[in-house]
User: Which sequence fits this backbone?
C-alpha cells in the first residue's frame, strides 16, 4: 500500500481498522498525521451534522415555497405544529390540548381553502386507520389528511357547514371528561368526549360551533376492525 | 432481541419510537435536502410510510437505521416525482444560516456551511455514513453504486472539508464508478 492508497482509505473511513493500513502507518509519519487530522475532522463533522433543532422552533418557518405543491406545505406545517407543541405537551396545563389544536391549524391554512369534495377512497382509508367511519354527505368534506399530532397519526378533516368550514380532528388517544369550549387566537372550538377518545371541532373566528359539532359527532361511528 | 409487539401495545410502542427518533430523522433529511421545510415534509411522509409498514419492523434495535433508510428513499422519491430544480447553494446557505448557527462556535458554523456546499454526490454518502451510521456497502446499495465509488466519494467529501482547517487537500485521483 502506498501513501495515496492509504490516504484515500483513511479519508473514506477514518476510524477503520485495517491490518494492511496499520502496517503502512507504522512506517509513515505523514500518513499517521493525515489520519489524526482526518479523525479530528470526522469528530467535528459529527458535531456539525447534529444540528440544534431547538433553534428551529424559535424561528418563523418559511411559508413561501413556490417549488413544492400545497400538500407539502401543509405537511410541513403539521410537523412544525407538532414540534412547537412539544413544550406545552410536556407541561400539560388543562388547556394544552386546545392550544396544540390551534397551533396545528395555524400551520395548515390551506385546509380551510379547499372546496372540492375529497376522494371517497382516501376518506375511508384515513378514517379506517382510526377505526371510525363518518355518515355525512360526501360533498361536505373538503379536506382529509393523516396528521401527526401529539405523538400519533390522527384524521384531520374539514367539513363545510352553515357556519362555514369547520376542522374536525378525531383524537383516539386523547380524553376529555366532558364537553369543553375554547376560544384561542381567533379560533373557536369545542372538545367532545367520544366512544374512543375525543373529537375536536374548531371554526375560524367567532363561529357558533356547538350545533354543527354535535351533528358531526353524531355522524362519526366506530368501524369494526 | 427486542421485538415489536402486536396490536394496540405495538402501536403505542411504535408511536413512542417515532417520537424519540424524529429529531434524528429531521436532521438527516435536512442535510440531504438543504432545506428545512422540505426536510420536514420528507420526514412526515417517511413517518407515515413507516407507520403503514410498522409490522415489517421485527427488531426495534434496528429501527433507527430502518427509518433513516425510509427517509433517504422518500427524499429521493420527492426529487424524482416533483423534478425540483437544482438548489442554488449560496442561496441555500444564506436561507438556512440561522438553522446552522450554534452558540458562538464560528468554526462549527463554517464547517456546516461547507458541508451544505458539498455537491450532492459527496454530501449524501457523508451524511449517511456519519449521521446515519451506514456502512460503505449499505450506502452503495442505496445509491446504486459500487462500494469503491462510495469510498471515493467519502474521501473526496472529507478532503474538501479539510480546507476549513487550513489543511491542504490531497490529490483526489480518478473517478471510480
Assistant:
Amino acid at each position: 500500500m502506498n501513501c495515496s492508497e492509504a490516504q484515500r482509505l483513511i479519508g473514506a473511513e477514518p476510524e477503520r481498522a485495517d491490518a494492511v493500513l496499520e502496517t503502512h502507518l507504522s512506517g509513515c509519519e505523514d500518513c499517521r498525521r493525515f489520519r489524526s487530522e482526518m479523525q479530528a475532522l470526522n469528530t467535528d463533522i459529527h458535531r456539525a451534522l447534529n444540528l440544534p433543532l431547538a433553534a428551529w422552533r424559535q424561528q418563523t418557518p418559511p411559508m413561501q415555497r413556490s417549488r413544492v405543491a400545497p400538500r407539502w406545505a401543509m405537511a410541513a406545517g403539521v410537523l412544525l405544529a407538532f414540534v412547537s407543541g412539544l413544550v406545552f405537551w410536556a407541561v400539560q396545563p388543562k388547556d394544552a390540548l386546545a392550544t396544540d389544536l390551534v397551533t396545528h391549524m395555524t400551520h395548515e391554512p390551506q385546509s380551510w381553502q379547499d372546496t372540492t369534495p375529497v376522494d371517497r377512497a382516501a376518506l375511508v382509508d384515513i378514517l379506517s386507520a382510526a377505526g371510525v367511519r363518518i355518515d355525512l354527505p360526501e360533498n361536505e368534506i373538503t379536506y382529509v389528511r393523516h396528521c401527526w399530532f401529539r405523538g400519533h397519526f390522527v384524521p384531520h378533516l374539514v367539513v363545510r357547514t352553515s357556519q362555514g368550514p369547520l376542522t374536525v380532528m378525531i383524537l383516539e388517544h386523547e380524553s376529555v371528561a366532558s364537553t369543553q369550549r375554547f376560544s384561542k387566537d381567533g379560533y373557536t372550538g369545542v372538545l367532545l368526549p367520544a366512544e374512543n377518545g375525543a373529537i375536536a371541532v374548531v371554526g375560524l373566528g367567532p363561529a357558533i360551533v356547538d350545533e354543527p359539532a354535535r351533528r358531526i359527532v353524531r355522524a362519526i361511528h366506530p368501524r369494526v376492525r | 432481541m427486542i421485538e415489536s409487539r402486536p396490536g394496540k401495545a405495538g402501536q403505542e410502542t411504535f408511536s413512542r419510537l417515532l417520537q424519540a427518533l424524529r429529531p434524528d430523522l429531521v436532521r438527516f433529511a435536512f442535510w440531504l435536502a438543504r432545506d428545512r421545510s422540505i426536510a420536514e415534509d420528507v420526514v412526515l411522509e417517511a413517518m407515515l410510510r413507516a407507520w403503514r409498514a410498522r409490522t415489517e419492523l421485527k427488531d426495534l434495535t434496528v429501527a433507527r437505521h430502518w427509518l433513516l433508510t425510509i427517509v433517504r428513499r422518500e427524499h429521493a422519491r420527492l426529487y424524482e416525482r416533483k423534478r425540483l430544480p437544482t438548489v442554488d447553494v449560496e442561496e441555500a446557505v444564506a436561507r438556512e444560516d440561522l438553522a446552522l448557527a450554534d452558540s458562538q462556535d464560528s468554526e462549527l458554523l463554517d464547517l456546516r456551511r461547507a458541508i451544505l456546499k458539498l455537491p450532492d454526490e459527496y454530501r449524501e454518502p457523508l451524511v449517511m455514513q456519519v449521521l446515519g451510521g451506514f456502512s460503505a456497502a449499505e450506502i452503495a446499495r442505496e445509491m446504486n453504486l459500487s462500494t469503491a465509488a462510495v469510498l471515493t466519494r467519502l474521501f473526496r467529501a472529507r478532503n474538501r472539508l479539510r480546507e476549513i482547517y487550513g489543511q491542504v487537500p490531497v490529490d483526489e485521483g480518478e473517478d471510480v464508478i
